[in-house]
Amino acid sequence: MEKPTKTKHMPSSSPFAVILLYLMIKVMSPGFKSAYATDALFPGQFLTGNQTLLSKHGAFKLGFDCVFPRCGYDYRFGIWYIKSSACRPLLVWSPLGDSIDCYPLYSRFGFTTYGNLQLYCNPVNGIVNGWSSDLSSSHVIDSDSLLTVLLDNGNLVIRDPVNSSLVIWQSFDNPIGTLLPGGWLGFNRNTSKNVFLIPHASVISWRNGEADGAPLEAANGIVLAMNPNQGGGFIVKENFHEIYHGTFPSWMGIHEDGGNFFLFSDASVYVQLNKDGTITAAKLGECGSVLWSAHAPHNHKIHSVVILTVIVVLTLLLTALVLLWIIQKKSVMDRPVNSNSSLTIFSNIQIKKATGNFSVKLGEGGFGCVFKGTLQGSTLVAVKKLKDFGQGEKQFRAEAQTIGMIQHINVVRLFGFCAEGSKRLLVYEYMENGSLSSHLFPKSPATLVWELRYRIALGTARGLAYLHEGCMDCIIHCDMKPDNVLLDADFCPKVADFGLAKLLGRDFSRALTTMRGTIGYLAPEWISGLPITHKADVYSYGMMLLEIVSGRRNAEKIKQGRFTYFPIFAAVKVNEGDVMCLLDSRLEDDVDVDVEQLMRVCRTACWCIQDAEDHRPMMGQVVQMLQGVLDVQLGSRWTLHDGGKRMEITRSQHKNNHAKQTRMIMMHDTTK
């Protein structure tokens, strides 16, 4: 990325300096014409002084302008709405925030030959600030053929000059302070990016006197995001914690797209997020007259004088409380497991405090209950309170340390544990979107689109492959099901509850038969008493893959002709080439379903649920199958398990005009 040259301007008494000063005054005078009175910038072109880009119909301009009428030292750079003749220009996007004053003459904004937008600001306070769109070379094939255009809806884009739909970067994907008509919030499936709105003052993150470049989620930490679980809903967060939520009024013309993001389609209404978390809506050209607003309940500001008075009155009490807290903290301070471990040993008192005495229950399973908690520093965690453990403290610590060493993007991370007296607790990272099962099955309020289902299937396969093949010792999960696949804020899947059987030191095969909902995922070797290998996880994953496709529990009875067991029905339909009948009926309107991708997923699932474990693929091969790297062929004979019986599904073929054609699908009971 090309960095702006930082030049220090010094006064001079030479004649040349006088001439230069005169030219500068002329450039800054109202009669001076901008060098770029168009809506586009080409590589190598820069704006400075009063030069601007003007959108096609004159609604917006990009350049330096002043916020207040007298135009002293309050020049800001950004996109301004200028169509109203009654109102001053409205700043709707500024990469450096609305509090950074720049000298227009000594600052510049341009489109570099490397295909990046770059702002160099020489501000009033003397601290040089910079910003860049920070596009890597992988995004740009030929930067010389690109151009930057200010559209008439206020969107600044880097695009192909011929194909206007080929957009490399746009300000609508990085909204700052204002959400213009036509803007959006939520997860954009085209860019795989979660778009949220931040206040103007939240943009800068300082590092050695320079800005990082891209707008960040936290400066003062305020964020306006879409609420995917509520139609037209929004969430306002501060430092990743929800302050409040609500819904936008219907008259704003919000258009939702598959539950993933929505557009503000009203042609004149814009939304602003203030740094105190307040949301306002107004009409362009009406000088900011508020039509609607929202703020956190009881969000009243207490005057600083009152706060100081209270502090003075309660000084002695607060001092005593602080001293007590310090003493308590020293007595129960977090201790690392050892010098080589990142795990933390928590006391039972700390866990109770973090969970509010186990007040918010997230779920319950065969190993125990899970509660929501918050550690110091506002870190959200999930605390699993174990039951029926069979190991002593020393063995428990050793096994927990083994689990804590496992780190992968698709595996839930263990932060620490508590082994105090009879208490056994595990502290995991918190997954905002809960388990896969809570989103997958019919009673879920929102339907997962196919693209998300495929990403979840692939990510889960990668996590299992890491446990089987990427760790020093192969870790068999033994309880793979949608309930044990958790989703973070971006719906990235993470495998959970791995290694708990060994951790608790108990007969896992007997434990499984008592767990509700787990029987449908048991490989035949569990029932027949054969040794359990990592191929048992492959079988369970295949069953879960069919559930991801169909949105139904695999153990449910069905009525499909002569079929009562869904996996057998699915295998027959895959052999016949009819996979669309297996797809979740709620995805009928999902135009982004990739049929070839769906076929790969269904074929992979059928290979995974083979009765004989040596016929099942490794999880590393499953990843390659789902990615299309490894070809997934139809099986000439698949042997599946159905309620204690083995069913063979065969594919007979004959030649006719030198072409292989499927003649029939035969099912045989091979238990005799």
UniProtKB/TrEMBL annotation:
Cellular localisation: Membrane
Organism domain of life: Eukaryota
CDD domains in alphabetical order: B_lectin, STKc_IRAK
An annotated Gene Ontology molecular function: ATP binding
EC number from the UniProt entry: 2.7.11.1
Topology class, membrane: Single-pass type I membrane protein
UniProt-listed Pfam families: B_lectin (PF01453), Pkinase (PF00069)
Residues covered by the Bulb-type lectin domain: 38-171
Main location: membrane
Record protein name field: non-specific serine/threonine protein kinase
Organism: Triticum turgidum subsp. durum (Durum wheat)
Taxonomic lineage from the root: Eukaryota, Viridiplantae, Streptophyta, Embryophyta, Tracheophyta
